[in-house]
Each structure stands twice: as structure tokens, then as C-alpha cells.
Amino acid sequence: ARASTGVEARPSALEGRIADLLAHGGHHVLIAGSADSGILALVARAAADRGANIAVLDICETPLELCRRFAARWSLPIETIRQDLRDLQIERRFDIVLVHGTLHFISADRRLDVLKRLQRAIRPGGRVVLLFNTGHAVAAGLARESRTGYASWVIDELSRLDVPLPESE
After folding, report:
1. Which of 55, 80, 133, 142 could form a disulfide with 64 if both were Cys (CB 3.0 to 4.6 A apart)?
2. pLDDT score at 136
3. Torsion sign over Cα 19, 24, 31, 100
4. Does residue 49 have a pLDDT over 50?
5. Residue 41: C-alpha distances to residues 46, 98, 141, 168 (Å)
6. What is the mean pLDDT of residues 42-63?
7. pLDDT tier at 13 (50, 70, 90 boundaries)?
């Protein structure tokens, strides 16, 4: 669906929806599974001038460090939480929980439990914003073909989104 990568030059539909939710009183945001700083950038733009409190949760230290560096560079106060969503114990703290492409990393038999944990983390009236891939998995020969054109696809997508490159192709 190309819902968002977080690096779009123009606001994405996701960014607009997050901004709308923040405009209606929600100020505490949890990014559940960051992967990198792209979704943090998107949430920060959506939350601009709204005094939002942003927490970024990931099981891996690397994306959390990327988010910390991004936040430091842009003087953005954030909290980072290194934790597996399967162990989440936070209760009634967030107005918005953004889960962007994370659930497919959790086994099917644990997803309901994780969703219940996310529900407990939300304040009354809060929202879970869940994005996930509905396409088929790339397998076998298609996986090799997919890797072959990946770099070109990334350049094409960045161009389509009007994201300037730091240097020429």
C-alpha cells in the first residue's frame, strides 16, 4: 500500500492520521518496533508543536541507537525502551500506539497476547494504529529476483517520494 516509510518529502496518509489523533488530545505516543529512525521522523513531524511525549520500543539495540542519534540531532526528547513486545507490561500510559510492520515478526500463536498487551498500554480513548503487509511472501526464485533489483527499486521509491539523495546515484 506504500502507507509510509517515514522519509517522504510530502506528508503520508499515516502522518496525517497520526497528526489528527494528536490534535484530538493524545500526547503520549509509543512506537512499537522502530526498525530505524524513519517512523520516529514521521511521528515527530506529525507531533510538531503539540508537546508530544514519544517513546520508541524495540527488541534490538541498533534501531534504538539510531533513534537516539536522530533525536539528539533534532533536539527531540524521546524515551527508548529495549524490550520484546511479548513481555510488555506497561499499563494505561499511551494515547497512541503505532505498530508499523512489527506483528509479522511475532509467531501467530503469540499475536493475540501481544495485542492484549498493547491494549493494556493504551489510556482510555486511546488508539492502536496497526500497519502490516498484506502481500504474499517473496519465496524461492522470486527472492533472488527481488534482491537483484532491490537497489534500483529503493532509488526509484526515493525519487517517487521526492526524497533528495545525499549524493548522485
Report:
1. 80
2. 57
3. negative
4. yes
5. 9, 13, 35, 23
6. 92
7. confident
Rounded to whole angstroms, the Cα distance separating 35 from 32 reads: 10
CA distance 94 to 110: 22
Q: State which amino acid sits at residue 156.
A: D
Half-sphere exposure of 4 (CA within 13 A, CB side): 29
DSSP assignment of the chain equals -----S--SSPPHHHHHHHHHHHTT--EEEEE--SSSHHHHHHHHHTTTTT-EEEEEESSHHHHHHHHHHHHHTT--EEEEE--GGG----S-EEEEEEES-GGGS-HHHHHHHHHHHHHHEEEEEEEEEE---SPPP-HHHHHHHHHTHHHHHHHHHHHTTPPPSS--
- pTM given for the model: 0.77
Please name the residue that has the C-alpha cell 522502530: 34
Average pLDDT (121-141) is 76
- Pick the closest to residue 78 from 124, 41, 26, 103 (CA basis): 41
